[in-house]
């Protein structure tokens, strides 16, 4: 670890106790500190002690219920604003650049990125922007290492099976505009989105998605802290990953 990481960890232990970062320290041991599910093999970091559950009930975690309820309640307005943006402000969308690939048939409109709200989105999709800021950002439920964006798969597009980088954040999908013929598979279990409702899953497990419908499929994606992580762990992981990215020249 770099001096910056070590000093931050010392400060966190001072605030929260000597054992507050034990799981993070185990994660950093050779081999990751714990066995992992075969369908998590592609993930880089696995924080020990988190439930190895691919699919989660969006209302099973009290911490996340306000986010889910707020997004679902606002869905009709969010959908209308998204459709207006797609029709009149297409330049606000860009090819989605996943850490593994870039796809022209996967479009994104970002609301939160680089640890902050994307101010341009406040006028493009104001309701989603306000709900996200109030219920996920201001409450520190969002993982600042990642993002929130409208994810639009064009007809015929597919996202190849892959694991994301770690298990200590979790992916919430609000189904905004869903044609027939769309599906998402996580750890071998395929589900469909129900418009106006949320799905929640651990994307350290292998997952894929496809749009076999006749029009674009759009979900609002929010990267939230895994509800089984603790406040000191979140502080430490933010410092750790940010410093690794800095050393790798990723900003």
Write the layout of secondary structure elements.
Blueprint: H1 3-16, H2 22-27, E1 55-56, H3 65-73, H4 75-88, E2 94-97, E3 102-113, E4 116-117, H5 121-124, H6 126-137, E5 148-153, E6 158-162, E7 169-177, E8 182-186, E9 189-191, E10 198-201, E11 207-211, E12 217-225, H7 231-247
Antiparallel strand pairs: 1-10, 2-3, 3-4, 3-5, 5-12, 6-11, 7-10, 7-12, 8-9, 8-11
Helix pairs in contact: 1-7, 3-6
Describe the structure.
The protein has 251 residues and is of the alpha+beta class. It has two domains: 3-41 and 231-247, no CATH class; 56-225, B-lactam Antibiotic, Isopenicillin N Synthase, Chain (Jelly Rolls). Helix content is 30%, strand content 26%. The strands form two sheets. Strands 1, 2, 3, 4, 5, 7, 10 and 12 form an eight-stranded antiparallel beta sheet that branches. Strands 6-11-8-9 form a four-stranded antiparallel beta sheet, with no helix packed on it. A hairpin with a 2-residue loop joins strand 8 and strand 9. The longest helix is centred in the last third of the chain and has 17 residues, at 231-247. The two termini are 18 Å apart.
Measured by DSSP, the beta-strand proportion falls in 25-35%
Rg on CA atoms, Å = 18 Å
Main beta sheet strand tally, sense and closure: 8 strands, antiparallel
Please tell me the total number of domains.
2
CATH class of the largest domain: Mainly Beta
Concise synopsis of the structure shown:
This protein is α+β, with helices and mostly antiparallel strands. The protein has helices at 3-16, 22-27, 65-73, 75-88, 121-124, 126-137, 231-247; strands spanning 55-56, 94-97, 102-113, 116-117, 148-153, 158-162, 169-177, 182-186, 189-191, 198-201, 207-211, 217-225. It is built from seven helices and twelve strands.
